[in-house]
Amino acid sequence: MARIAGVNIPTAKRVVIALQYIHGIGPKFASDICAKVGIPAERRVNQLTDDEVLRIRETIDSDYKVEGDLRRETAMNIKRLMDMVAYRGLRHRKGLPVRGQRTHTNARTRKGPAKPIAGKKK
């Protein structure tokens, strides 16, 4: 099992798919990395040599922000919005949808399960 950027990559999958298990690498970045390193798209992780794994690891470390660094940057951006009391920061703080969605109905993912209101029933 190859370990890249602190993540165990599944060995039976194709390299392009397996790289997407790393937070911050999607389909486009995965195919870009394979093209830079010179690995064919149909190659599987268990067919990679140690040298190829090392080149993939070095490419990701030098060119992409992934895993812990990316999560930390995202958290700092949200914290910055909250500290300067921006509208988006207030929505984050209250646990409500941030991007203008309606909350009268729906928004259950952000608001949590529905809480009954006492005395509402007739």
From TrEMBL:
Keywords: Ribonucleoprotein, Ribosomal protein, RNA-binding, rRNA-binding, tRNA-binding. Pfam families: Ribosomal_S13. The keyword Transferase does not apply. Residues 93-122 are annotated as: Disordered. GO terms for biological process: translation. It comes from the Bacteria. SUPFAM superfamilies: S13-like H2TH domain. GO terms for cellular component: cytosol; small ribosomal subunit. PROSITE patterns: RIBOSOMAL_S13_1, RIBOSOMAL_S13_2. One of its GO terms (molecular function) is structural constituent of ribosome. Belongs to the universal ribosomal protein uS13 family. Part of the 30S ribosomal subunit. Forms a loose heterodimer with protein S19. Forms two bridges to the 50S subunit in the 70S ribosome. Located at the top of the head of the 30S subunit, it contacts several helices of the 16S rRNA. In the 70S ribosome it contacts the 23S rRNA (bridge B1a) and protein L5 of the 50S subunit (bridge B1b), connecting the 2 subunits; these bridges are implicated in subunit movement. Contacts the tRNAs in the A and P-sites. This is Small ribosomal subunit protein uS13. It comes from Niveispirillum lacus. The lineage of its organism: Bacteria, Pseudomonadati, Pseudomonadota, Alphaproteobacteria, Rhodospirillales.
